[in-house]
Prior knowledge:
Chain A contains ten helices and 17 strands. Chain A is α+β, with helices and mostly antiparallel strands.
Amino acid sequence: MPAHEIRRAYKRPAISDQQKRRELSLLRQQQHRLDAQSQARRLASTLFSLTTTSAEEPAIGTDIDINTETASSKEIELGVSENDDEEEEDDDSSDRRNVEIKDVRQASRVGGQDGRRWFARQLMLPEWMIDIPDRLSQDWYVLARPAGKRCFVVSINGTTVSRLRNGSVLHLFPSGLPCGARTRENSGSPQSYCILDCIFHETDQTYYVIDMVCWKGYSLYECNAEFRFFWLNSKLTECGACKPPSHYHKYKFSPVPVYNCDQAGLLSAYTGQVSYVKDGLLFYNKHALYQAGNTPLTLVWKDEKCSQYVIDTDNKGEVPNKQQVVLELQNDGKLTTSDDPPVVFGSVDQDFVQKLVLHPGNLLRFAINDGGLVFVDGKLEKADLVYQDKPNRGRAFADSYSKVVFQYMARHSPLSIDDLVASINSSAEEDKASDVEMAC
Amino acid sequence: MDENNDGKLSFEEFRDKAYDTFKSYYEFSSSDHYVPSPELQFADLDLNKDRYTMVMEITQVLLHAQSVDGTVRKHAEETLKQFQEQNLPSFLLSLAGELSNEEKPAESRKLAGLILKNALDAKDQHRKFELVQKWLALDLGVKNQIKAFLIQSLSSLVYEARSTASQVVAKVAGIELPQKQWPELIASLLANIHQIPPHVKQATLETLGYLCEEVSPDVVDQDQVNKILTAVVQGMNAHELNSEVRLAATHALYNALGFAQANFNNDMERDYIMRVVCEATLSTDVKIRQAAFECVVAISSAYYEKLAPYIQDIFTITAKAVREDEEPVALQAIEFWSSICDEEIDILEEYRGEFSGDSDIPCFYFIKQALPALVPMLLETLLKQEEDQDQDEGAWNIAMAGGTCLGLVARTVTDDIVPLVMPFIEENITKPDWRQREAATYAFGSILEGPAPDKLTTIVNVALNFMLTALTNDPNTHVKDTTAWTLGRIFEFLHVAAAMETPIITSANCQSIVTVLLQAMKDAPNVAEKACAALYFLAQGFEDVGPSSPLTPYFKGIVQSLLTVTVSYGEDAGESRLRTAAYETLNEVVRCSTDETVALVFDLVPVIMAELHKTLECQNISPDGKQGERQGLLCGCLQVIIQKLGSSEPTRVVLLQYADQIMQLFLGVFTCRSATVHEEAMLGIGALAYVAGPEFAKYMTQFYKYLEMGLQNFEEYQVCAITVGVVGDLCRALEDKILPYCDGIMTQLLKDLSSNQLHRSVKPPIFSCFGDIALAIGKNFEKYLMYAMPMLQSAADLSSQIVGADDEMLDYTNLLRNGILEAYSGILQGFKNTAKTQLLLPHAHHILSFIDNIYQEKDMDDAVMKTAIGVLGDLADTLATSAGPLIQQFSVCRELLNECLSSDDDSIKQSAEWAKLAISQVISV
């Protein structure tokens, strides 16, 4: 029998570069497979946000069927100002046909009303800030909201389309966004589309990008705000969309400075010089995903200094004497907001309903009388309401609770910038205090 | 020949069928062309006059098969091969008969035995299985006759005959014992032991040893194991005066150790075995001493936890052997301690792992206890270097074994080694005798892995300058070799300086380090090779250094020096190793480069391309394959560059301008017939496809045939595996543009899957590749469903039935499951949003029950779990509401989902969240 070999490696590193090359290649392939897989899956999530939203939509009277464009032009009466369309006046929620649009590619192809309906449901809508969230300085970003038209910008197949919140097209143009123009460097596979959440600012004809939903086919729906802003800032400037307009790039895009919501950040957003007219401040919770529809994880706040449109105006552009609210009539006569779950502001009796020939689901406009809103322990206890009239038929939703309360506060005891600063400082104090305790 | 299949040849059968073979054999083997008549020949072969014959006279052909004359030898081999194919029973009987026939020459008997052995076993698993089946199918009478011949041969006076016979007996036992056949074998062998003639005893012990090597312990019952061990250990005993017998017994014990589990658990029996083994290490016969130490080494790893009572004695005998005995014995004695280190490193590793303190085997800290005596013993060995050992690839001596062991000791005891070795280094490092300087340097290099960096930084900071000077000025090449190696070890283990208070490499000394290493690259090839390796680790340490690397100022010089080395054309082994090291270092330098040097990496592209082009031209002139090694290295280097530059958008775009040329070079390389080169070129093409994206389509017509060739390469399965990976790259790059090639690719992949020849490790990636293809071509995958789905289903069934497998099998099973699930995932996603999703509905039940099965088994790893939860989501996503009732039917869905949602692994959790979203669209979760 032969002796048993006992040689060991001598003065040789244990690695083989060939093996390393092989392994790195496998790693790269694996990563790319995962990317392809998650891209395939993320395309799906745009579909989910569609169906989720439509499932949550409240039932609306079948008689309402209004053409989108005309609706939005009529929609001025209580319409805040035309520039501020943060959270009301949806129009075509009458959509009861089951048009199944799978993703943005299909929506773009479908076009027309169905396409508009699809886009109309994709935006994330901030609530109004009626109290100050905890940990503002740790968990939130702040940015100065540009005044202008909120819209979705989609670049796909060599064209860029911007659509207003109601889904109607604002501009159709070539842009420096990926897939945004028919140029060599910008063409790409149809899967490489982009979706940006923007505000179009008229005076400098610029799209200010306030959020990024999809970049080169990579959906950011399930990414938190921290990542989305990081991606937005690194990718947008890379692609040439921020350059001055040119033949293949009709409108300029610009990121908006985003600050950590500590004292310095808040004041920078509030007072800092920017190239656009401000319309309030937007607050984003760093951990929140992009979510279509109302969300308390994004907040809007305004005061006279940073916005021209703090208090709602009527259809003549004047501030009414009394605050107006639009509420929805329920089966049991209760009057509720558009929130989920709805907040009850009061109720009407059977006689009233019969007299005005009202049906559950109808929207009614009230004025807040001198009794005002009474809160107990932070909850609405009583509202002194006076019936006014039925709002415009194009109106789809009642007011949200946060909007009513913000407007009410704006008239009586507004949440001021000082309150915000104080809140940040006090939490900083607390941190310090607890530090000391720990040290003891 | 055997018309009535009775295993024998009657005269009629012989005359009509076999005589011709015989006649040609006679005409070939006799000089006067005399051929006996069929009657006469039959009478000759019908030894027992039963009117049947089978044993043929084959001495002459066996001798011819060993002839120095190539033609004669070839003819003889051909004759034997024909014989084997035409009449296996007769062939085997004839060989066994030859082996047992004392009148035949030793050479023909030995060859008969070896051919017989090869007719029972093969390295190739497929062939082995065939041979085993053939043996089992033989007529019982034939097998008995062969066994009779074999057993008879064990008593032969001729050593070659009985030794070969012992191996054949073990092969037959290896086939038959697991089938519960030949039950009398072990008993009759044991009876042989008591025979007086020592040569019979020796052959029997040898047979028992081979038998233990062939047969798995669980097919022999404990009673027989006890008897075998008793016989073997008695044979090893000092009372056995015949040293041949004692040696055979010692070798036999080595193989029988695996059977001794129960005996090692019994204190008395274990004591006895250990006493006999230790005594044998003191035998006067050097071969017995060496064999006995081999047993001690084998025991150290098989029965580590039983060694405590003997470790003191073993230290004494190993120390004596290391210091005084002949080299083969001393090497085994050192190996014992290396092997103990291996064991303790593993155990301590497990202690430190996530199941802390939960190791099956406790650590006895033998090395730590032996340290004060062990280290001086090993340091002594370092001074016993041989001249020119660094030039000789095959060298292995006491100094090398001792140094290697010292390195293992350092890894085992960590910090404690430092104070024990430092005095030796300080004393010897400046001595005039090169052996002392080399030994001191080697000792230093050996202890750099193991101790905590802060225990070494001060010393290394002092030593670094000394080493740099030695590498430049020492007159002895061994010292330089070891110095360069030690520098490499410093960079390998102590580079990551950020965490240290006193970093080893600073911007102040970086320049002199690089200068010295580049200078050393012009030294003797063995020194230059170590300098390259040192540079490799120097670069590697700066891998994650951020945007600015301290190597940036020297990048150009480093690359230049490495290129100079790579283009040298020396032919000997040392020079060839140096070239390889230089290319590999170049690769690492490129991988670890930063944006500052990106332009210089671009400069490399045309240089490497030109070199590769040169090899292609040389190949056209003399296609003798000498270019192969260099081509492989150049392809590897290009691949690394492509991957580096392809990983960021701006450089990717610039790199694209070279794509045409690079692709032509890779295609040229495929005309060279070397597996390694093909592998490297394939890897390069995969990386290029990623860089080029859809534009890669223009190369497909030219490349396709090589892709197909790669997929057909069963023998060099690494090439096949890599080609499968490249198909995945192509799918992602070309998306639906790959469609025209899919018929061919799918056909080949399906063939690969059904092949028994292809190495099993390629099969899981092939399944994943189905997923890649489906994702790329979407609903066009429809026409492959009828082939792919049954394959997936049967593989899935197979992989969920595996129970009680060993770790290796379990790993493979998990890889297979992952591949299958990735295929399902890709297919499901590929069909999403098409009108064809209903085609997948019939498969949904099976997919879910597969997931159910593997979930119930509780042995899936994280990767499988992540893919499985993803597939659940895909199923819901693609099949939408049609999947709802099915998903509800399988409770596993909810359990798996919940388990994944609460997983600690973020990527599992993320997949699970996605799956939850998808599932919530079809049922209420």
